[in-house]
Design a protein that fits this description.
alpha+beta; Glutaryl-CoA_DH_mitochondrial; Butyryl-CoA Dehydrogenase, subunit A, domain 2; 385 residues
Length: 385
């Protein structure tokens, strides 16, 4: 499908190389199998982790410790091509780099960085991020998971987290908990006694992704387990901003994959004596879908350049996540309609992307949270309380 707006012409040579490399990987290693993974509700993380590490996409926007140290637009382009394969694939990379590696890189001790970041960048160790709780999703300030130091100086961690990507396959969890000094982050090896992570089953979305609960039953951690560089909600919220940036790029890939499937189908499916793409109602759908895709691509590229300039704000990230996910979901739904009955089969990518995007709409901040974030930015009035 032609890029009528020539948006990728604005990418550097290195960024186009990253695009093509990740796109080839997805075509060769993901697309032939992801329909089966989705149907069977599996994701071969241990097999793919080292391959993704060798591609340099794990923590690729971080400096040092084996990370590629690339710019934000390059990271965004990689997320776009990964999610054109499947949202679960991009989620794995996003959680690894932006939610597990980023807080260790930004707020961790030298020892924590040396212990975990090189192995995580190589895909040899898998991380997860424990913030959302069964009763506190959009309101993390009131989380119940708590940690308390005993007389020995060790931390005792108790509580539960839910909807945790990579949870039951992770080697390390970055867990946020209430303490006497406010919310703190902890680096928790998952083989620590008292830690458990049962997988969540019977999902109808993000099936090619591991989603788990985390339980902490008197998990004893040394004093060195706490992230020393941050206190309060600033820590987890900064991680969410990193992850949301990857999402606002990634969903462009899912939308593009759906539109490409719809265009291909519309130009070959014959009804009433001609391809259905020759009917005005179908062309109207396709045209509006392309407009939405182009606007999303431009938003992502603009926000990527702001991030590279060091001026990107959380409110701007909320704008991008809100607008681009909604546009991608609309494109997926219209594509499903164009494909008719074939749109619900895994022979085409559309229904898989469509159901995945229902989760992406919710995680890393619901649509309502981002609307209220923008409302507060516009009015100066806080509607969260």
């Amino acid at each position: 499908m032609d890029d009528l707006l020539r948006i990728d012409d604005g990418l550097s040579e290195e960024q186009r190389l990253i695009r093509d490399t990740v796109k080839t990987f997805v075509a060769d290693r993901i697309l032939p199998h992801v329909g089966d993974w989705f149907e069977e509700a599996v994701f071969p993380a241990r097999e793919l982790g080292p391959v993704l590490g060798s591609l340099g996409v794990l923590g690729m926007h971080l400096e040092g410790y084996g990370c590629a140290g690339l710019d934000a637009v390059s990271y965004g382009v990689a997320c776009r091509e990964l999610e054109a394969g499947d949202s679960g694939l991009r989620s794995f990379v996003s959680v690894q780099g932006s939610l597990a590696m980023f807080p260790i890189w930004k707020y961790g001790s030298a020892e924590q960085k040396e212990e975990w970041l090189p192995r995580m960048a190589a895909g040899e160790a898998i991380g997860c991020f424990g913030l959302t709780e069964p009763d506190h999703g959009s309101d993390p300030a009131n989380m119940r998971t708590h940690a308390k130091q005993d007389a020995s100086g060790d931390w005792i961690l108790n509580g539960a987290k839910m909807w945790i990507t990579n949870g039951s396959i992770a080697d390390v969890a970055v867990v946020w908990a209430q303490t006497e000094d406010g919310i703190r982050g902890f680096v928790v090896p998952t083989d620590t006694p008292g830690f458990s992570a049962p997988e969540i089953h019977k999902k109808m979305s993000l099936r090619a992704s591991v989603t788990s609960s985390l339980y902490f039953d008197d998990v004893r951690l040394p004093a060195s387990a706490v992230l020393p560089g941050v206190r309060g909600l600033k820590g987890p919220l900064s991680c969410l901003s990193e992850a949301r940036f990857g999402i606002l790029w990634g969903v462009v890939g899912a939308a593009r994959a759906c539109l490409e499937a719809a265009v291909g189908y519309a130009t070959t499916r014959v009804q009433f004596g001609k391809p259905i793409g020759g009917f005005q109602l179908t062309q109207e759908k396709l045209a509006w879908m392309y407009v939405g895709l182009g606007q999303s691509q431009l938003t992502a590229l603009h926000l990527g350049r702001l991030k590279d300039a060091g001026t990107l704000t959380p409110q701007q990230v909320s704008f991008g996540k809100l607008a681009n996910v909604r546009a991608a979901l609309d494109i997926a739904r219209r594509s499903r309609a164009i494909l008719g009955g074939n749109g619900i089969t895994l022979e085409y990518p559309v229904i898989r992307h469509m159901t995945n995007l229902e989760s992406v709409l919710t995680y890393e901040g619901t649509e309502e949270i981002h609307l209220l974030t923008l409302g507060r930015a516009l009015t100066g009035l806080d509607a969260f309380h």
